[in-house]
């Protein structure tokens, strides 16, 4: 078993698929600990990522940026940074906290991230990326992985991509990459536009796997369904889904059966909501607000009868002082009974 490929079997699960076979992407302001707890109720096997956390926040911040719930496993921490020593410090702390994977962000194109000299701009510095990964691997046995793009600005040839992957993998020992199948424009496009305007190039990522067969490669970008995920898995080791999994989270309820061979029945939407109640009540007693948790559940009934009323009732009431699980039970009353258990 390679360093980057923890398997479901190694966690006492079967069949023997790599942990990265299906994952939910790190998404700023979205994949917080409440979101991940909810997603875990829908799928046992999906690898869940934190939002990107900078090394500076972990080392110098006053908050606990490594906090997560034990039920979130398997869970990966995504780090933003470019100083090998700082990244090693954070990797060691994350390993001590029990994270299943530590991922280096070499894909985010935002100006703020570039100003910190990390994210997609690091594709132009593969030697530095290799130093960063090597420094992290020296202090922990937890898989250290890289999430990247297929190119940046005018540096978007296939040779540029293979040079980057080749240098990083050979000089650091990194054997797991997640590739967003779009290049990033570092100037002129917003992060949102960088997720939509540069064209997707799936065949380029497929070719990368052919040229680096020993590496575990997952693809990200534009995946809208499990059917699409299955098509990618015919060529690659893993698929990472972003906004589709957040906006229509119930797609995760079929992942275990369709992609990991689980034979027991999937959870229903009603069961998913009710399974959140103990967690919500616990979090409320510790000072959390309902809307900070329920906002991640708004898409649960996407494209179903009553979905708009479900979203509206929660949005109008979850922020009120004293709001509790009765907001969700009332909101479920807007969904026809037959669809609650669908």
UniProtKB/TrEMBL annotation:
EC annotation from Swiss-Prot or TrEMBL: 1.3.1.91
Transmembrane stretches, start-end: none
Binding of FMN, residues: 26-28, 78, 147, 180, 220-222, 242-243
UniProt superkingdom: Bacteria
Residues of the active site: 108
Site location (Interacts with tRNA): 105, 192, 195, 308, 311
GO MF, any single term: FMN binding
PROSITE patterns to which the protein is assigned, alphabetical: UPF0034
Keywords: Flavoprotein, FMN, NADP, Nucleotide-binding, Oxidoreductase, RNA-binding, tRNA processing, tRNA-binding
Catalytic activity: 5,6-dihydrouridine(20) in tRNA + NAD(+) = uridine(20) in tRNA + NADH + H(+); 5,6-dihydrouridine(20a) in tRNA + NAD(+) = uridine(20a) in tRNA + NADH + H(+); 5,6-dihydrouridine(20) in tRNA + NADP(+) = uridine(20) in tRNA + NADPH + H(+); 5,6-dihydrouridine(20a) in tRNA + NADP(+) = uridine(20a) in tRNA + NADPH + H(+)
Matching Pfam families: Dus
Domain DUS-like FMN-binding: 24-328
Record's function text: Catalyzes the synthesis of 5,6-dihydrouridine (D), a modified base found in the D-loop of most tRNAs, via the reduction of the C5-C6 double bond in target uridines. Specifically modifies U20 and U20a in tRNAs.
Matching NCBIfam families: PRK11815.1, yjbN
Family: Belongs to the Dus family. DusA subfamily. Belongs to the dus family.
Protein name as it appears in the record: tRNA-dihydrouridine(20/20a) synthase
Organism: Salinivibrio kushneri
């Amino acid at each position: 078993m390679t360093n980057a490929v923890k398997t479901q079997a190694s966690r006492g699960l079967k069949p023997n698929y790599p942990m990265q076979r299906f994952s939910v992407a790190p998404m700023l302001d979205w994949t917080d600990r409440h979101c991940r707890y909810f997603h875990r109720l829908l799928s046992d096997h999906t690898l869940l990522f934190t939002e990107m956390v900078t090394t500076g926040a972990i080392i110098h911040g006053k908050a606990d940026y490594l906090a997560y719930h034990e039920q979130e496993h398997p869970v990966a921490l995504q780090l933003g940074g470019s100083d090998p020593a700082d990244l090693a410090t954070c990797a060691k702390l994350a390993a001590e906290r029990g994270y299943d994977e530590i991922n280096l962000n070499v894909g985010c194109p935002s100006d703020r991230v570039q100003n910190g000299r990390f994210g997609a701009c690091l594709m132009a510095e593969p030697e530095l990326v290799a130093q960063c990964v090597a420094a992290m691997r020296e202090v922990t046995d937890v898989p250290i992985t890289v999430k990247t793009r297929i190119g940046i600005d005018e540096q978007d040839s296939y040779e540029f991509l293979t040079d980057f992957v080749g240098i990083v993998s050979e000089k650091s020992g990194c054997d797991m990459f997640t590739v967003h199948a779009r290049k990033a424009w570092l100037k002129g496009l917003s992060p949102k536009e960088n997720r939509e305007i540069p064209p997707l190039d799936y065949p380029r990522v497929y070719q990368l796997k052919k040229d680096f067969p020993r590496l575990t490669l997952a693809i990200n970008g534009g995946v809208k369904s499990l059917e699409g995920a299955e098509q990618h898995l015919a060529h690659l080791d893993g698929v990472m889904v972003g906004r589709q999994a957040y906006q229509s989270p119930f797609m995760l309820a079929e992942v275990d059966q369709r992609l990991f061979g689980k034979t027991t029945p999937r959870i229903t939407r009603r069961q998913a909501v009710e399974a959140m109640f103990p967690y919500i009540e616990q979090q409320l007693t510790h000072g959390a607000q309902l809307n900070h948790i329920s906002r991640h559940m708004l898409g649960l009934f996407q494209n179903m009868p009553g979905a708009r009323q479900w979203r509206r009732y929660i949005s109008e009431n979850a922020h009120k002082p004293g709001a509790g699980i009765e907001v969700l039970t009332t909101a479920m009353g807007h969904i026809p009974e037959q669809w609650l258990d669908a």
